[in-house]
Amino acid sequence: MTRKSDNSAKHRGRAVTLIPGDGVGPEVMDAALAVIEATGVAIDWDRQAAGMNAFQRFGTPVPDALIESLKRTRIALKGPLETRVAEGWRSINVYLRRTFDLYANVRPTRNFAGVQTPFSNVDLIVVRENTEDLYSGIEHEVAPGVVESVKVITARASRRIAKFAFDYAQDHRRKSITAIHKANIMKLSDGLFLKCARAVSHSYNSIAYQEQIVDAACMRLVTHPESFDMLLLENLYGDIVSDLCAGLVGGLGLVPGANYGDKGAIFEAVHGTAPDITGKGVANPIAMILSSAMMLDYLGHRAAGEKIRAATASVLRAGKVLTRDIGGKATTAEVSAAIVRSMSRA
Ligand code: NAD
Question: Counting atoms of ligand 1 from 1, which one is nearest the CA of 288?
């Protein structure tokens, strides 16, 4: 059965669904919980299983209790969930994003002093449409040996993600948005996405708007990443390009993410279950820790979110307590303990 709460009753705060997830999920989630606790913000966690671990315990990757919890709290901190390649159930991540209409996926991706990469000036916000495109899950076999996948792009979803991106740019004092597309080939679908982005851009005079074809944009991202500020993408390009961007700043262990809707949000790292390092205690918890800082911002605890970001940057800058994906030897728990220590000194 699911556990109701990790906090004592007298310290009840905002109710949030906690989904540790599969693979390294529970390891990085424990690290994030230690850091959140150190901020002093009280949260009434409702711990729920999802994904492979839920399937093994309850016979379904999406237990009813999970959906009920999300309907009640409307906010979740979530670890990665396993989705088998070319078999098994459809992605639970995609299912949750669509069920709760979490249409805007935001992935802030930037360099940290202390993490060696070919670039030192990457500061990108990737905004990905989360509900349609080839992720609509409409696939069928037309005849043996011939399958079709349907790419769905609507004006409604394209306009609202563009508006979300421009509003975000305004709120966060960003300078420009580049819409990334393949409208030279997919003239109708990507053409519609662009048409909507262009129309929305006209209402935001202070934010520059450009467009770039996805292949050329990928080349430019790995040669001149500093020439981009915010990226606006459909679902599939957003998925691929955001991992590419993570590679620019030191890897998936460093990049947080959030899925926002009009009535709720799910916060999660960009990375997956990392089966190759699961159970070894060496996963980098920073992506999950920074995702929890985004959650605290969303809950109105901006100072606590800032405190986590500052302490994380300070631990990375010092370069002594780093996991092996970024050149160190520290364990997951040692990194979170170092961040907690840095917060208590601040
Ligand atoms: P992955 O992100 O799990 O791993 C890719 C590489 O990055 C691996 O070498 C891994 O060790 C490394 N890595 C990832 N996170 C790390 C961390 N925190 N610290 C250090 N290294 C880290 O991608 P994958 O192997 O393609 O996918 C594995 C599973 O995860 C699949 O079932 C996939 O569907 C799922 N997945 C889930 C989500 C999600 O729940 N949001 C996202 C992506 C992938």
Answer: 18
Sheet of 123-129, strands arranged across: 43-47, 14-19, 75-78, 265-268, 258-260, 104-110, 123-129, 230-233, 176-181, 208-213
Beta strands 75-78; 14-19: pairing state = parallel
Give the torsion sign (CA, 247, 252, 253, 259): positive
Whole-number Å distance between alpha carbons of 329 and 320 = 9
- What are 60-116's pLDDT values in tens digits? 999 999 999 999 999 999 999 998 877 778 889 989 998 999 999 999 999 999 999
What predicted TM-score, i.e. pTM, was given to this entire model?
0.95
- CB of residue 268 inside a 6 A radius of ligand 1: yes
What contacts 143, CB < 8 A, 6 or more positions away?
Answer: none
Average pLDDT of the residues of the chain: 94
Instruction: Report which protein residue has its CA nearest ligand 1's atom 35.
Output: 272
**What burial class does residue 329 get, using C-beta atoms within 10 Å of its C-beta: 0-12 exposed, 13-18 middle, 19+ buried?**
exposed
Q: Compute, in angstroms, the gap from residue 269 CA to the centroid of ligand 1.
A: 10
Task: Return the closest-CA partner of residue 278 out of 79, 20, 24.
Answer: 24
How many residues are listed for the chain in this entry?
346
**Does ligand 1 lie within 6 Å of residue 287's CB atom?**
yes
| pLDDT band, residue 11 (cuts 50/70/90) | low
Top mutation candidate among 91, 105, 273, 282 for ligand 1, by most atoms within 8 Å of CB? 273
Q: What is the DSSP letter of 179?
A: E
Atom nearest to 268 CA in ligand 1: 41
